[in-house]
Design brief:
Order of helices and strands: HHHHEEHH
Radius of gyration: 19 Å
CATH class: Mainly Alpha
Largest sheet: 2 strands, antiparallel
Distance between the termini: 36 Å
CATH architecture: Orthogonal Bundle
Number of domains: 1
Helix content: 55-70%
Number of helices: 6
CATH topology: Arc Repressor Mutant, subunit A
Length: 154
């Protein structure tokens, strides 16, 4: 269902798109990430494990940027992963003010075990679109995101 707002054609089109985009994003996220609850992981925790696996040790601020979370939220996410023994914190030798977050052996094993199923879930979920449609949606999503960021800059 689209908007019931009776405004200008531009207003109605933008509202309709926003509703459809929000619903599609929610459905996609839910479908792709439903497997994480079996591992007792949140989407943010999975994102941190994935970033550390592919990018190596990161500082909390870098992880927050990669996972699209606030630094305050990232502190809690990291703390919970540390408690589970999936990541560790280490002060840098060259700058004691900086802390690097790294995967532990247990964290590496977990992400290596669940990532192939995650990829398969992403591929399956996106298979409702042709490869060309996936590329078009990716390009449009990038354009929308970059346009929003550019408009927000002073």
């Amino acid at each position: 269902m689209g908007t019931h707002y009776q405004g200008t054609a531009n207003e109605m089109a933008a509202l309709d798109l926003y509703i459809k985009l929000s619903r599609a994003a929610d459905a996609t996220t839910g479908q792709i990430n439903h497997h994480l609850h079996r591992q007792n992981l949140t989407i943010s925790q999975f994102g941190v494990l994935e970033a550390l696996y592919f990018l190596g040790p990161q500082q909390p601020g870098q992880l927050a940027h990669k996972v699209l979370k606030s630094s305050g939220n990232m502190t809690l996410v990291i703390e919970n992963l540390v408690k589970r023994g999936l990541v560790s914190r280490e002060r840098r030798e060259d700058d004691r003010r900086c802390i690097d977050i790294s995967l532990t052996t247990e964290g590496r094993e977990l992400i290596e075990n669940i990532f192939p199923d995650h990829v398969a879930g992403v591929v399956q979920t996106m298979s409702v679109l042709t490869l060309e449609e996936q590329q078009q949606l990716a390009a449009l999503s990038r354009k929308l995101g970059l346009g929003i960021l550019a408009a927000a800059r002073p």
